[in-house]
Amino acid sequence: MATMTRLLRWAGLLALLTGLTACGILGRGKDDGSRFGRASGKEVACLERAMFFESNRSSRDGLVAVGSVVMNRVASDQYPDTICGVVGQKNQFASGVLSKPMTASGLPEVQEAARAVMRGERHPMIGNAMFFHVASARFGYDNMHYTVTAGGNAFYEKRKGNVTQPVPLPAMEGLTGR
Question: Does the model's pTM come out above 0.90?
């Protein structure tokens, strides 16, 4: 009887672990981003919302740059491993990014750019940048390495030690436009 009880417990534990893995709670490590080609509608919507509210819809280039930062964070062990987890992090993106209503203005372009990012398109100058701020702001930190200015934002990597503080690069609008 004790053997049967142990066997049933193991079977139950195995079923629980299988269920958690299937729904994405367990067994989902970082990957190359290819899994996003078949991402849920919720993940796509979270990416669209970040791109919509953070790039000011000023250009496709800016949209793809914001999307690239989101995907860089998803790929990093320092951030949640889902798009919605990254976009929903407190004090990281625009206030209300996941709850404010989106207007129809510019939405088709945002949706197209988000789908392109989900398929693997990245801004060619973002590199490993995981941070950005409005381009007009200036900060005196010595660990900010700027990669590009696009869509009204300055994108940067944080590096350890003293780094030469370059002035944000001029806008590179149209690099990813089609």
Answer: no
